Fold this sequence. Notes:
The chain is α/β, with parallel strands linked by helices.
Amino acid sequence: MERRTFLGALAGGVFVAPLASGAQQVGKMPRIGFLQATRNENVAAFFEGLRDAGYIDGQNVIVETRIYGTMLDRLPELANGLVAQRCDVIFAAGPYAIKAATEATRTIALVGVDLESDPLANGWARSLNRPGGSLTGLFLDLPEIGGKQVQLIKEALPGLSRLGVLWDSTVGAVQFHATEAAAHAASVRPFSLPIQHLGDFHGALDLAARDRVQGVVVLSSPLIFGERTEIASLALSKRLPTISLFTLFAQSGGLMAYGPDLPGMYRRAAAYVDRILRGTKVGDLPIERPSKFEFVVNLKTAKALGLTIPPTLLLRADEAIQ
């Protein structure tokens, strides 16, 4: 079944495993809160994970979905609304949604997926192995991944000396400084291209073109992920090669991507939700780091930019988009 179809009509017969007796009252359907910025392929992956665990929305589970878009000011209202719905567990994606959920409740189990935040530094967990509170999930928090992106784009552009770094200054300071340091270490001059709002991308990439930047590392945030197609299109129009942490960025027209298997992280989060509904204490579920990373090259974009990707780089790609 295609993911888009699956999102619209979570239908079809599946084996429904019984919930643990202590997890839910007999006859009471569990209620899952879902809080994220946009509907996308990752949402489909989460629902696929629920299906694999035996849950079908409206049949043996109720999923309260809240999509906040760019309206960050609505997040506290939406998170408090999920608490008022007496959700048994809330899934929150990204730093904004997780912050809103942790402020809305200290008693409902929370499962998060986040590429930008350090759950320990933010006080969301006591340790990775035993979080001990109401939050667990999957967190990247690997700022050094920016160094890998610098290495890859420099291999694709052997003469690279001026590198833009597009980043969300509301959540991406740690990633930015790590990438900036990696660029200096690679004898590449970094140019900061900070954004905060939806309308900032045009100005940032205009600045990159004016400063004769030769390539751009695109760091991660919910805002950047949501606008990945627009960013890829703008960069291509300004003849700027790009690399992103989001593998879907390359599929949206960016030149390259190197990052975690984000849909896989969402499927894994659904498995965490299942374990909580079956009675496992959220504080006993370890916070996981992604273990699978993918390198994707868009050869169609390379051709449009007049670039030839070195064969040694292509051999390392998990996917080459023609």
